[in-house]
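Bumping with the actual sequence this time:
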Amino acid sequence: MTNLFYTDLIEQLNRRATRAALGLLGFRNDALRAYLTSYFGHEAGLPGSFLADPVFEATFSWQASEFSLGELSGKLLHKDLVNALSNPQIEQLTENYTFDLEQYAYSSE
């Protein structure tokens, strides 16, 4: 059902964006308007489509977990994953993608 909601939403956004663009452009030629309506009506994200793939952002709140990354090792998270996060083996990742074992994870409310 969720996927159906987003599909309907994307189709609705595409229709409204098409109507808005054609209204702003002010074309009075019916054949041109029909062609552009059809052209703009391609599925979002496909080559030549009017809209790019949609991006949805989570809007629910996050709270700090009661467990640190180190405390989750071997329990909720596999110990090899925790080790890879806290000690990346790829040099380019160490500066920006090293997670402290004492850092607390976040979960949604």
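The tokens above came from a reply further down the thread. The beta strands are 62-68, 104-108.
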